[in-house]
Write a structure and sequence with these properties.
About 30% of the residues lie in helices and about 20% in strands. The strands form three sheets. The protein has a seven-stranded mixed beta sheet with strand order 5-4-3-2-1-14-15. The protein has a six-stranded mixed beta sheet with strand order 9-8-7-11-13-12, covered by helices on one side. A hairpin with a 2-residue loop joins strand 7 and strand 8.
Length: about 270
């Protein structure tokens, strides 16, 4: 196929269950780049959650962070920045805490990550998973004109659907997506991975029909449907596999590399 860019989710897609990029997958990325095909990371993570991957495996690429709230080129230049005001972040956190929702919150502005308590086990697990560090604080500490890219809710898995429903009801103007069994991502309205890849293609002079995308979870679904060639990882929920139809191997068995090989994009 005539694929001019590849968009790729991180957790459950690019990295394995133990947070590694497999050698064949890493080699596939470098083959694409050697052919002049952009490999673009599209993730709910902050940029600081992506840099350790790039350093560990020796490749640079453009990054779509915060599910589309921030787009950086491979040199770190900002191509697009979207979010909601500081006061909205305060409202979200106050709603969660006043209603006793079984979750811990993380707030992000550009590459600053703040949490209520750094010794919260949920926060510590997230720090370990993304190989980045938060700091203890409150959104009120940011400048009044700060752009907040995301509130991450780390939820009790038995309560996440209830928390998602309550957040959607209270904040219908925001973009809210479940990215795992415990993670709920809250962004500004209209911020989605699908919107981000459209913006990226417009900025780069690409037709989105000439792109491929890889993902594994609900916050990837619109991106997979928007790209010309959406591919679902074998570890994805069955509903997503049915919706997209094109399924590769799971993230622990080189699903990305295997699909790119079948597409004729690598050898």
């Amino acid at each position: 196929m005539n694929c001019r860019a590849v968009f790729c989710d991180v957790d459950g897609t690019l990295v394995t269950s133990d947070r590694r990029v497999l050698p064949r997958t890493c080699a596939a990325i470098k083959q694409l780049q050697a052919k002049g095909v952009p490999f673009v990371i599209v993730t709910a993570r902050s940029p600081s959650g992506v840099y350790p991957i790039q350093r560990a495996y020796g490749f640079q690429c453009d990054i779509i962070a915060y599910s589309g709230g921030l787009i950086l080129d491979e040199k770190g230049n900002v191509l697009l920045h979207r979010g909601f005001p500081r006061n909205k972040a305060c409202e979200i956190i106050a709603f969660a805490e006043e209603n006793g929702l079984d979750m811990s919150w993380c707030a992000y502005s550009v590459d600053d990550w703040i949490v209520r308590e750094k010794d919260d086990p949920r926060v510590q697990r997230e720090e370990y998973n993304v190989r980045a560090q938060s700091r203890q604080g409150l959104p009120q500490e940011w400048p009044e004109d700060a752009i907040v890219n995301k509130i991450l809710c780390i939820c009790n898995p038995d309560k996440i659907l209830e928390i998602e429903a309550r957040m959607r009801e209270r904040f219908p103007e925001l973009s809210i997506a479940k990215s795992s069994d415990i993670l709920l991502e809250i962004m500004a309205g209209g911020v989605t991975k699908a919107d981000a890849i459209l913006s990226y293609c417009a900025a780069r002079g690409l037709d989105v029909a000439d792109t491929a995308a890889f993902g594994d979870n609900y916050n990837d679904l619109e991106m997979l449907e928007t790209a010309g060639y959406g591919v679902v990882m074998g570890n994805a929920p069955e509903e997503i596999k049915r919706r997209i139809g094109r399924v590769t191997d799971d993230n622990n068995h080189d699903g990305i590399a295997n699909a790119l090989e079948k597409m004729g994009m690598i050898e």
